[in-house]
From TrEMBL:
Pfam families: RVT_2. It comes from Platanthera zijinensis. Transmembrane segments: none annotated. InterPro entries: DNA/RNA_pol_sf (IPR043502), RVT_2 (IPR013103). SUPFAM superfamilies: DNA/RNA polymerases. This is Reverse transcriptase Ty1/copia-type domain-containing protein. Residues 1-162 form the Reverse transcriptase Ty1/copia-type domain.
Length: 400
């Protein structure tokens, strides 16, 4: 559903005055100003005022606000549940009972001027397709537009988004390229990672060189576009009737960055065996060992898993002792052993919260062989065979 002129519905708590609009000035009181009762577009208070008005209305109608996500509202009725997600003036809702959806739509249309968009098919650039077997998310339309926009229609395709033989570096002696063009491509690719985890690592590496891009960097982003040209309809598939087992994978590429020798953290989280979150990020400090870089990566994954545990509680799903799979036995030993060691004394305190949650039983740090470490695809470029293997395990399929 879409709220028409949403911000105009917001009630203001602050005192805000505006000049009389041109063409509507009172000739008897030209120096007077108006005191606003409702928000106007352009006011800094407008988004907040609209949110307060909408959330108050929903709470008055027996909805409860999410403890983690404050834009999530829920209501249970006789074992049935309806979920409402707010994004500015767009509202997505779903329920286990179709009748509850109809009642909610009627409730909202009775209070605000709304337009119903029907079943969710397109949202913020994401193409959503629902069938009896499951749900798919893709961005094939945006991908094809991107290929056309940057003149890659006649280019040959690539089987992987990044090569393994020539790592990208700062290239201070390289020929500079158009910064606006380069940043535009990188920005579009980052937007595409919302449904394309297969290009996450390559895009994040290219994003590091936006300040002063060179020809080698431009060649790297064009390779990603050539890979996308060959896989425009690839997307994520979520089958029905899966369990709610939460699982995390964490990995690190020790000293992978050639400029500052910092490591890269790669994490991904699965719910019921299907990918729901992923990240690729350079670590903020230099690790002096593989074990340390893996331990830091596991800490990042732990933080995301804990957030998801609390988020699932809002949906009425209780999760306990979430497995976190790591391919470093040394990092697992550091997390499981509370005794301070000379090799770990320098690690920032914020990463040791992983050890605390392992002791409490919130997280179960488990070993996985490197060949089965799915998060590896978010830490470094892989050869075609390994890349395709992990791509399938991420739940990526061709969406018709």
């Amino acid at each position: 559903m879409d709220v028409k002129s949403a911000f105009l519905n917001g009630d203001l708590k602050e005192e805000v005055y505006v000049e009389q609009p041109s063409g509507f000035v009172d000739p008897l009181k030209p120096d007077y100003v108006y005191k606003l009762r409702k928000a106007l577009y352009g006011l800094k208070q407008a988004p907040r005022a609209w949110y307060e008005t909408l959330s108050t209305f929903l709470i008055e109608n027996k909805f409860s606000r999410g403890k983690i996500d404050k834009t999530l509202f829920l209501r249970e009725s006789k074992g049935k549940i309806i979920l409402v997600q707010i994004y500015v003036d767009d509202i997505i809702f779903g329920s286990t009972e179709n009748n509850l959806c109809k009642k909610f739509a009627k409730l909202m249309q009775g209070k605000f001027e709304m337009s119903s968009m029907g079943e969710l098919k397109f949202f913020l650039g994401l193409q959503v397709r629902q069938t009896d077997d499951g749900l798919s998310i893709s961005q094939s339309k945006f991908t094809k537009e991107l290929i056309k926009k940057y003149g890659m229609e006649s280019s040959s395709t690539m089987r992987t988004p990044m090569g393994t033989s020539m790592p990208i570096c700062k290239d201070e002696t390289g020929k500079p390229v158009d910064e606006s063009l380069y940043r535009g491509i990188v920005g579009s690719l980052l937007y595409l990672t919302a449904s394309r985890p297969d290009i996450m690592y390559a895009t994040c590496v290219c994003a590091r060189y936006q300040a002063c891009p060179k020809e080698s960097h431009y060649t790297a982003v064009k390779r990603i576009l050539r890979y996308l040209k060959g896989t425009p309809t690839l997307g994520l598939w979520y089958p029905r009737n899966r369990d709610f087992l939460l699982t995390g994978y964490s990995d690190a590429d020790f000293a992978g960055c050639r400029e500052d020798r910092k490591s890269t953290t790669g994490t991904c989280q699965f719910l019921g065996g299907r990918l729901i979150s992923w990240s690729s990020k350079k670590q903020t400090s230099v690790a002096i060992s593989t074990a340390e870089s893996e331990y830091v990566a596991a800490g990042s994954c732990c933080a995301q898993l804990l957030w998801m545990q609390h988020q699932l509680k809002d949906y009425g799903i209780q999760v306990s002792r979430t497995p976190l799979l790591c391919d470093s036995k040394s990092a697992i030993s550091i997390a499981n052993n509370p005794v301070s060691h000379s090799r770990t004394k320098h690690i920032e305190i914020k990463y040791h919260f992983l050890r605390e949650h392992v002791e409490r039983g919130d997280i179960s740090l488990e070993f996985v062989k490197t060949d089965y470490q799915i998060a590896d695809v978010f830490t470094k470029p892989l050869d075609e065979t390994k890349f395709n293997k992990f791509k399938i395990e991420l739940g990526m399929l061709t969406i018709d």
